[in-house]
Amino acid sequence: MDEDESNIPGPPTVGAEELVLRSQNLLGELEEFEEFLAGKNRRESELGNVELRQFRNSITAESKSLRKLTTADPTSEKTVHTLRSSNLPFYEAVWAAAKSSTGLVAFNKRFYWEEASSGSRAVNKKVSSGNTAKTKQKNVLVDIVTQGGLEWVKVSTITEARLLFDMAKAGWEQLSDSEDGEDEEDGDGAAPSATGSGDELSLVKLAEELSRAARATRIRYKHPQVRFVLPKIGLGTTPEIDTLIANIKATGAQVECGSSLSADGTHVPALKEVACNLLVDPFAGFSPTLNIDCTILLALVSDLSHGAVALQPRFHRAIVRQIELEKQEKLLPDLLFPAMGVRELVCTREAHRRMREIVELIGTTTERRRTVLLMGDDPSKPREVLVDEFRELSDYEVPRDWNLPIRVVESDIDAGKPLPATAKIIAEKLSEINRSVFLFGWASGLTTISSNRTVAKLIENLVEGHRKGDDETGPSIWLCPTARSLVGKEKNRKS
Predict the structure, then answer these.
(1) Are 205 and 198 in contact (CB under 8 A)?
(2) Mean predicted confidence (pLDDT) in 55-84
(3) Which domain holds residue 463?
């Protein structure tokens, strides 16, 4: 139920001019939000970009249709019907629900699942012609994806009058009102669930479909939570509607009705009040101590990460590409420094050893000097001194509260929390250094920061493919969306 038809009985007709004005105000706020996002310069891979285009285009099309009605006869039956059935109130309700959320990701996003005799599982493509009779791919539309993907919001502007009309039309009755009470369970007077109501009432059926899609989808090893927002429905006044809401909740969904949205059910916060809340925090859930992979250790000392580097004929194409990326987005100030914050930083002995080998082999003078500071080779230097000296080796602003040095730890997996059986399968697929980094972080409950996308994806796929229970999760890994190599010494250069 993406948009609701005209209500029964119909609401008072709002003039076309007023609806056009409201649509323009809505489009204005969306444009303001897009400008806010652009000003944050956040990468799509960091969940900073919000999928707005389809939602905005729908509102734009509605606004154009309404504008045409401003010159039509306002008393004609066609005009009245068109104004009453406008989708604008639905779009306004969706935007209001979005502004009351956090970590906004997308609007109007479809999620797919596969129905088979063995159950449902997630799929990443639309229905294909090769489906068999035993397997059917289905999809459901989610109005708003929030909380970094972990919440799906479905909005309906259906009124109580229309809902009761639909329920009566479907022949659904409140069994708890029966005089003899023969259908009541346990004789406690509670209204039982309406068996099969998902096939009869669209809201309940929709809740069941969303539940199936959510069970077939995982975001960071977790299933999304479904939330219904029903701004024109109240609780505690109509037993039939209360039972309907109970049936929606029985699917696992949360339900917010108009009476619970605000004191009067209509207040919507101004964008400027909530804009920051709508940004996805890519560092939410980070552990207080971070486990730093070798790829990030190298990025932290690379000349490419600390200022403009002139192109040279000897540079590998990967180095050239990284120079171009650094011009577009500064790795340290835009990504790594915010990710690390003031948290304690550690790395395994294996990651440290490999990083040192590479620096000693090809590192420039400045890359070596940064390594000495990063790892705290001189224990007499306090953090403030290490940061000050590091600042002298960078063209960028290095945070004064950066928690140097990075402490080297033993990758004793047995000393951490017991890992699921899947960890053994993963360990067999990883190199020694990657075992030490990622399994240590997993066993220690630490967030691992890495730019090794291949290994991170391998681990995720193995966890999903071999999980023994629905609650089993893998390691907490934050993937830096781009890497930086060492510039490297020229051939035959000794320093």
Answers:
(1) yes
(2) 93
(3) 289-479
